[in-house]
Design a protein that fits this description.
This protein is α/β, with parallel strands linked by helices. It has 10 helices and 8 strands. It has one domain: TIM Barrel, CATH 3.20.20.390. The structure holds SN-glycerol-1-phosphate (1GP).
């Protein structure tokens, strides 16, 4: 995923659509995949905190049949490793203080990942309070970063970068009522030289624009597109417009 690093340097923006294998229904997925031809995206993220079916492989096969968009796993735990994807976000939950999600699960996953052939993307994962408790905060038994403390997020990201993490992911949580604030995105962007991923509650073109303008290099959208497939063209256009201005500059 060197593209993410070169995007960070060039100022180009990217969008990923998050597919939660638990919520997918085959016809809806195929329609969405077909629409990404006319309304391009950069990545599919596949995963969720709780996955209750053995469908990762099937979902990945379906994506491959219809598009050539790279597929990145967004795992909730080592059970979600599926070698047929392209890459995996190797998440260290640095907003929390639960050793299981900072290093414990990683030890369990490491030998399988080594054999998998997946590209490993060491990622500092920061949950940000969105007003209600999220599944991932509950399952990981961690407290999210306070919504209005961009300085704490910036210091957390700096420490993550110093530890060698290569991507930073600010996540307000799936279906968050309020996304990560532009102030926090800007503070993290200024604090590290790494690509910054932002997700959770981005369910309109305006929110996508705000996140990108504040400094997100990659936005992740799940629920918004699940609930309204017509959001895809809007979001794809917002990203393309940003990138046209980069080319012009
Ligand atoms: C959640 O960042 C992702 O982990 C996406 O969130 O489903 O709210 O878009 P949404």
């Amino acid at each position: 995923m060197t593209i993410l690093r070169s995007n960070r340097l060039s100022g180009r923006k990217a969008i990923a659509v998050l597919l939660d294998p638990d919520k997918l229904e085959q016809d809806g997925l195929i329609n969405l995949l077909k629409r990404t031809v006319a309304h391009p995206i950069d990545f599919f993220l596949v995963g969720g905190s709780l996955v209750t079916n053995y469908v990762h492989k099937e979902v990945i096969e379906t994506i491959r049949r219809h598009t050539s968009v790279p597929i990145i796993l967004f795992p909730g735990n080592p059970l979600h490793i599926e070698p047929s994807a392209d890459a995996i976000l190797f998440l260290s939950l640095i907003s929390g203080r639960n050793p299981e999600f900072l290093i414990g699960q990683h030890v369990i996953a490491a030998p399988l990942l080594k054999k998998s052939g997946l590209e490993i993307l060491p990622t500092g994962y920061m949950l940000v309070d969105s007003g209600t408790q999220t599944t991932v905060s509950y399952v990981s038994n961690t407290m999210p970063l306070p919504h209005d403390k961009p300085g704490v997020a910036a210091c957390t990201a700096m420490a993550g970068e110093m530890l060698g993490l290569q991507l930073m992911y600010l996540d307000a949580g799936s279906g968050a009522r309020r996304p990560v604030s532009p102030d926090m995105i800007a503070a993290v962007r200024a604090a590290v030289d790494l690509p910054v991923i932002v997700g959770g509650g981005i369910n309109s073109g305006e929110k996508a624009y705000e996140a990108l303008k504040a400094g997100a290099d990659l936005i992740v959208v799940g629920n918004g597109i699940e609930q309204d497939p017509d959001l895809l063209p809007q979001l794809s256009t917002v990203v393309q417009e940003f990138n046209q201005s980069v080319v012009r500059a």
